[in-house]
């Protein structure tokens, strides 16, 4: 998996691509933790280019979700149909805020 | 270090021998390659300086012989040659020599080339040593994992177990030795039976450790007041069965994930009441149970809450099924439906449902063994990315 970071004003954007699985979980968790600790509480995880996620990857997303909630921040996920269906399998779509594109994700924060 | 000198000319042999001894090397000198071969094997010689052209066989033949033997130690070989052309040098190296020196040679050059060889041998020695340690460590880890895998298997219910007319069978395939999946089927009292399937996030040792813990916690053998049963202090001998949703809600409070512990798990817990002929089912983020009523198409029971450990104080809801003889329930981990073919296509839940429908005329153990084969055929290799498990229950005649 490839992890890229971007910033849009005070919004942190993490762009993931490839297979997001157990082998990548630790690196992704550490990157997200640093961003959440240092950031403004606005985080987008872009998984549009992710081809597969496993339960370890879901665990990383849950951890990011919990950490940002402690900061009263907000996490927005961007998914594609494959990632979406894998998240739905575990019902996690009911807690995550999920949008289909970066434009939509940025709009979530700009509305406030 | 010991150096074997192979040289048919007595004058040159003596000269090299003296020079090497002056540099404090331990020297053995012979005049033909047959004697050289014997000494290398017997004395485990790791450094050879050999002449090229000799009456009993050339130095290049010695090189080929040594390389062909695949010895457990490496022998560094320097060829001495009076041949001038590049082609000979290539031929020497191709035959297995590590280096060559043209005669007549400078003593300093010989010394430098021997030192270069010593450096290579030292690297090779360190590498062999490290490799040996790694292999020994791997051996210990593998042995431990095998023992642990045996323990994990002992936590599973017996195959083809029948309790009060309800029979089970299962598939259990860890991705590597240990599984994050676990399931069980057990009597709770004289008219209740409990069953569950759990899939701890990830796979491997950490996931398996949590699956061991959960298996022990969800054991009905513990006397009154456990995760599955309780009794009131006034009447400790009277036991009550906890509802499926209560069991999951309790686990959810107890196993909340945090920054240090990311391992959530998905599960299904069911309580069968053989008097009322009902099954209370509670699903927590687990792939939907497939319910196959006799003579009907198998259907997914989709009502489900979040996985366990995600959101504190989460409420879980149960569904109640009224069962009849011949009904079957299939519980399985995502390792089956997310199992990828060589082209990356997932097996999928619809294919699984169709498989179950098509094989309805078979008994449950035939279905399990057929499914096992179908999954292997889908995967087309013996290793799986995720743990695979399936538990099937069949209602028989009580």
Structure commentary:
The complex is a heterodimer of chains A (112) and B (398). By secondary structure, chain A is an alpha/beta fold. Chain A has a single domain, classed as STAS domain (Transcription Regulator spoIIAA, 2-Layer Sandwich), CATH 3.30.750. Helices cover 46% and strands 33% of the residues of chain A. Chain A has a five-stranded mixed beta sheet, with helices on both faces. The radius of gyration of chain A is 13 Å and the shape is globular. The mean pLDDT of chain A is 93. Chain B has 398 residues and is of the alpha+beta class. Chain B is 36% helix and 25% strand. Chain B contains ten helices and 18 strands. Chain B has helices at 10-22, 33-43, 59-68, 86-94, 107-154, 205-217, 244-254, 334-337, 349-358, 364-379; strands at 2-6, 26-30, 47-51, 76-81, 99-102, 162-163, 166-173, 181-189, 192-200, 229-230, 240-241, 265-273, 278-284, 289-292, 299-301, 318-322, 328-332, 388-395. In chain B, the strands form four sheets. In chain B, strands 6-7-18-17-14-15 form a six-stranded antiparallel beta sheet. A five-stranded parallel beta sheet of chain B has the order 2-1-3-4-5, sandwiched between helices. In chain B, strands 8-9-12-13-16 form a five-stranded antiparallel beta sheet. Chain B starts with a strand and ends with a strand. Chains A and B meet through α1 and α2 of A and loops of B.
TL;DR of this structure?
With 112 residues, chain A is an alpha/beta fold. Chain A is built from four helices and five strands, in the order ββαβαβαβα. Chain B is built from ten helices and 18 strands.
Q: How many structurally independent domains of chain B?
A: 2
The tally of beta strands of chain B, per DSSP, is 18
Task: Using the coordinates shown, work out and report the CATH topology of the largest domain in chain B.
Answer: Phosphatase 2c, domain 1
What's the arrangement of strands in the largest beta sheet of chain A?
A: 1-2-3-4-5
Structural class of chain A: alpha/beta
CATH topology of chain A: Transcription Regulator spoIIAA
Query: Can you tell me the CATH superfamily of chain A?
Result: STAS domain
Averaging pLDDT over every residue of chain B, what do you get?
93
Q: Unreliable stretches of chain B, pLDDT < 50, 5 or more residues?
A: none
The pair of chains with the biggest contact is: A-B, 24 and 28 residues
Number of strands of chain A: 5
| Second rung of CATH, namely the architecture of the largest domain in chain B | 4-Layer Sandwich
Order of helices and strands of chain A: EEHEHEHEH
Low-confidence stretches of chain A: none
